[in-house]
Amino acid sequence: MSQDFLPFAKPALSQAAIDEVVACLKSGWITTGPRVQRFEEMLQEYLQAPYVLALSTATAGLHLAMLALDLQPGDEVITTPYTFVATLNTIVQAGGKPVLVDIEPHTRNLDVAKIQAAITPRTRVIMPVHFAGLPVDLDPIYELAKQHNLRVIEDAAQAIGTHYKGKILGSFGDIQVFSFHPNKNMTTGEGGCIATRDPAIADFITRMRFHGIDRKDAWNRFSKNGSQYYDVMAPGFKYNMMDIQAALGIHQLPELDSFIERRTQLVQRYQATLKDWPEWELPTLPAYAHKHSWHLYNPLLTDKAPLSRDEFIAAMKEANIGIGYHYQAAHLFHFYQQEFGYKTGDFPIAEKVAQQIVSLPLFPSMTDSEQERVITTMAKVLNRSI
Ligand SMILES: *Cc1c(COP(=O)(O)O)cnc(C)c1O
Description:
Blueprint: H1 15-27, H2 34-47, E1 51-55, H3 58-68, E2 76-79, H4 86-93, E3 97-100, E4 123-126, H5 138-148, E5 151-155, E6 163-164, E7 167-168, E8 175-179, E9 192-196, H6 199-208, H7 243-252, H8 256-274, E10 280-281, E11 290-291, E12 300-301, H9 309-318, H10 334-340, H11 348-356, H12 368-381
Parallel strand pairs: 2-3, 2-4, 4-5, 5-8
Antiparallel strand pairs: 1-9, 6-7, 6-11, 8-9, 10-12
Helix pairs in contact: 1-7, 2-7, 3-4
Bound molecules: pyridoxal-5'-phosphate.
């Protein structure tokens, strides 16, 4: 019997969110405006951050964050090879050089113990990525940053709603960048935001996300109360979020904690079921206090499995179940090998994880019986009993 295709991720959009988009379309104001402003205020409260700037994407946010720190050509940014390539691309776009440090095998996060050795006189920024929604060990990173006079940009694209030692990401530290891409834990279609506590950074990003125009309400210049005159302080970008996007966000954010709760339940069932299967090596959690937002659940397929990782993904697809793949090791992409001389063997842990990892279906509207289907299909594909 053929069953519907079960994707590995799916956004959960309420009727209220859909109605809000329609209301926005009918209102006559569809780009940056009152709904973006309201969404930013809601994010400020949720993230406990004095400044939150909504943007077109998280990629835009990473780019602006580095420009806000006045990165100069050749400045080095320490980050992980085990991330979505936007992390590295934006470093290069901002004129910087990505200096990579291998990951810790169990959490797949940057190995904090290896950062010190990568610091040089040209290092300006440390950019940890909270992989899959698991917070990186931030205390030692901020401590290193203080000792060496560096700044920290947290690529928190996968980690809205994540807590580290009792504090929500976004409420402390230098700069955090969150994504609202449809695969992420909450969505605005495309979209992202920056959180910071630094008014100078917030001012810079406010201008540079909209052409470098000097006024916060520049988007409002054609309305009754707006002035048509403005000045340009620097050649800025077009990185603003639209009200159509914020209309979704206004309704997604209040549901985020319940989305994370459902994701956590599903992960607990995967963990409890798969822990006795020698075919899998499961993700393990660090000892420090944290709340994982479980953006992804990705175990490693071991050599005890009767088929390769790619064969496993293909067999699951054949059975109408989508399996994600996050990620290829970024240092092995053509550009990064060519431009920076990275090669196979440079970051063995990231490379090994990249060869074995899969992302199992995980999304808030996933039912228990859909998860049952994933588990029974995996057992069949792996030629074992549950
Ligand atoms: C999704 C993601 C990004 C990019 O987010 P967009 O909103 O799609 O630009 C950047 N870094 C990481 C780690 C991501 O997962």
